[in-house]
Amino acid sequence: MDVTRRDFLQTGLTAGAVLGFGQPTLALAALAPAVEVGNPLEVYPGRDWEKVYRDQYKYDSSFTWVCSPNCTHECRLRAFVRNGVFLRSEQNYDSHKVGDIMGNKATPSWNPRGCLNGYTFQRRVYGPYRLRYPMIRKGWKQWADDGFPELTPETKTKYKFDARGQDELLRATWDEAYTYAAKGMMAIAKRYSGDEGKKRLLAQGYPEEMLTHWEGAGTRTFKCRGGMGLLGVIGKYGMYRFANTLALLDTHVRGVGPDKARGGRNWSNYTWHGDQAPGHPFVHGLQASDVDFNELRFAKLHIGMGKNLVENKRPDNHYFIELMERGAKIVCIVPEYSPPATKADYWIPVRPNSDTALLLGVSRILMDEKWYDAPYVKRFTDMPLLVRTDTLKRLRPEDIFPGYTQPDMSRGASMTRQGLTPEYRKKVGDFVVWDAKTNAPRAITRDDVGDRMTEKGIDPVLDGRFTVKTVDGKQVEVMPLFEAYKIHLKDYDLDTVHEITHAPKELIRRLAKDIATIKPVAIHIGEGINHWFHATLVNRANYLPLMLTGNVGEMGSGSHTWAGNYKAALFQGSEETGPGFKGWVAEDPFHPNLDPAADGKDIQTHAHSYDEEVAYWAHGDKPLIVNTPKYGRKVFTGTTHMPTPTKVMWFTNVNLINNAKWVYELIKNVNPNVELIMSTDIEMTASCEYADIVLAANS
Ligand code: SF4
Fold it and tell me: H-type helices in 36-173, by residue range?
């Protein structure tokens, strides 16, 4: 039976009435059958609904922004806005257009950039945990209103210093928050200054050594931390500027002049997180060797140690894919069969924290088999430098050449390009090698590397022991460092390395052979390795096989960690630019430059604050002092690193409670002694929950 649309509607209306639907439209909604359509590809009635889907990506405006969390990748993304709401983000795909003032541009290989965290950042901007206004802890506010009475076990309980996190956070205006914070800081600085302050601190049980850098100033009990400050120098490193500015408060409290005024203490960043490779400065003096991953794709042998380039470093792990596409060999050294291990040419399973032995074993094979690149080792490493076997110190030209004077290096690379000052040039001194051509010792300077050494006609030996006569007439045995390494590496034969690492012997040899025969070789280590006890050893051992085979200093070679650290150089001072970011964090608060058009070089700096490692707070707010059974009380923390008691903590962009190990101890026993904790953040973190004043930051 054919039913027309009109017939159907009439029937429907009748049925609706019979069934008692009061509203004809309801009847329609309940009973309307599907519209009969011949070929839906030719024509389809009522396609307005499709617009809803088409329009879901419609936007009114867009803008670019830089995602800047602690992943440190700083991806430039594009946000799309509709009805005033930031709806979504996507990669901007314009990294290749980014350049410096000299016109140097990044390569298109930087694209694509971004990850799902960045693309969903709007959820955090509008999310339920977003901080939108300041808050003050109820108990702390009462303590302030009561005139900041001295904290005793009773008052700590009364004002809930021992129950932060269970107390209420009260909404405050910005004026209130600032005023309460300022009053609190003034009261605390006063309480812990001078002789009275000293008596209190000692009575509270802090060891006297902790007053080393206190210097009579209550402001030195203030700890400020701008979490990962290089991700936002002005805002986050503003915390350190504040620590320095506290010198003004000190002059107010103690009545001292600018020369004696002390600021707060700057809590560290990278060392607390352990991002950096602590052994790198041992090798080359750099805080950490960090290349942009753009360089990774030039490696022909890539060795990942404790590194996960599949799941981590997300905007950069396409370079890992490019390594494969370009035919590089990939070796993965990790205890578990990890995602990058599944992509590797071979995986070397090792026991955790045994990597050092593996690298020393590989180095020994390279030396035993003479698989090293002797010309490179002679010209570019310190291995030919002679060491005295009586003192195990480097032989100095002054030791053996009467009346030796240091040659002028003022026109060499060290002083003209690397910033070596005359004072340091003197300290660094010169070195001695055993010259094969003359069969005699020859003095060399820091500049005599590579072609410079060849031009001088020096051919240093690597092996052997020699005898030199010192200026005071002694016969002293000396040997090149290379020879000393041969002795040191005797302990790392294949069987022993296998026993220590559990790595298969054939893979250890295979790795040595690959390092010897493939160029360039890069070793990339994960941050986890930098957290090992004795991490300096593995960091240093990384360089040995690379130095032996000429794999430092070429594109696609070298040993690198990843801390996003390369960006730090952007803010460093120079003769041309002035003090760099020190001009921001340590501008002299007594001589601020208020000229908005001031040249960077005109900023006067003066550090009134003093650095401190956060780890001492996490260590019960005390240094490492041990009552040893044999030697009695021993202070292991050095004078320069000595912390002060913590009475104020103010940190931004960091969730210290979440970062800390043994957090129960901190919440239960350490923080109740801290009289003001301030957390500045974009979200309600655990650290905000356990703070006295919470300040909402922009995202
Ligand atoms: S990798 Fe992701 S989280 Fe990190 S900066 Fe880029 S988009 Fe943001």
Answer: 49-54, 116-119, 121-125, 138-145, 153-158
d(CA 285, CA 488): 23
pLDDT of residue 563: 67
Q: Quick one: 675 exposed, middle or buried, by C-beta within 10 A (0-12, 13-18, 19+)?
A: buried
Atom of ligand 1 minimally distant from the CA of 66 = 5
Closest CA to 268 of 232, 235, 225: 225
Predicted TM-score (pTM) of the model is 0.81
CA–centroid distance, 573 to ligand 1, in Å, is: 28
**How is 363-406 classified by DSSP, letter by letter?**
HHHHHHTT-S-HHHHHHHSSTTSEEETTT-SB--HHHHSTT--P
Distance 114 CA to ligand 1 centre (A): 5
Choose which CATH entry (3.40.50.2300, 3.90.780.10, 3.40.50.10380, 3.40.50.740) describes domain 135-267+581-590+604-696.
3.40.50.740
Q: Considering only CA atoms, which of 699, 653, 561 is closest in space to residue 70?
A: 653
- Statement: residue 500 has pLDDT above 70: yes
* Nearest atom within ligand 1 for CA of residue 114: 7
How many residues are there in the chain?
699
CATH 3.40.228.10 fits 280-369+501-563, yes or no: yes
What percent of the chain stands above pLDDT 70? 94
Q: How far apart are CA 314 and CA 282, in angstroms?
A: 30
For 107-156, what is each residue's pLDDT tens digit? 888 888 899 999 999 999 999 999 999 999 999 999 999 999 999 999 99
In DSSP terms, which residues pair with 612 in a beta bridge?
267
Q: Which amino acid is at 698?
A: N
* 60 C-beta neighbours (distance < 10 Å), count: 11
Q: Which atom from ligand 1 is nearest to the alpha carbon of 118?
A: 7
Q: Which residues contact 680 (CB under 8 A, 6 or more apart)?
A: 650, 651, 652, 653, 694, 695, 696, 697
Q: Which residue has the higher pLDDT, 419 or 396?
A: 396
The residue nearest atom 2 of ligand 1, judged by CA position, is 115
Q: What are phi and psi of 560, to 5 degrees?
A: -140, 150
Residue among 117, 313, 653 whose CB has most ligand 1 atoms within 8 A, to mutate: 117
Give residue limits of the domains in the chain. Answer: 59-125, 135-267+581-590+604-696, 280-369+501-563, 381-486
- Give Cα 595 to chain centroid, integer Å: 33
Six token digits for residue 462: 């690597």
Cα 97 to Cα 93: distance, rounded to the nearest angstrom: 9
7 DSSP assignment? H
pLDDT of 30 > 60? The answer is no
Which atom of ligand 1 lies closest to the CA of 116? 2
Place of tokens 């001009």: 583
**Amino acid letter, 35:** V
Confirm if 648 and 157 have CB atoms less than 8 A apart. Answer: no
How far apart, in whole angstroms, are the C-alpha atoms of residue 276 and residue 654? 18
Say whether pLDDT at 375 is over 80. yes
Cα separation, 514 vs 348, whole angstroms: 13
Q: What is the pLDDT of residues 294-309, one digit of tens each?
A: 888 999 999 999 999 9
* Residues 605, 586 contacting (CB under 8 angstroms): yes
Lowest mean pLDDT among 102-111, 121-130, 308-317, 563-572: 563-572
Least confident of 33-37, 176-180, 288-292: 33-37
Q: Rounded to the nearest whole angstrom, what is the distance from the C-alpha of residue 66 to the centroid of ligand 1?
A: 9
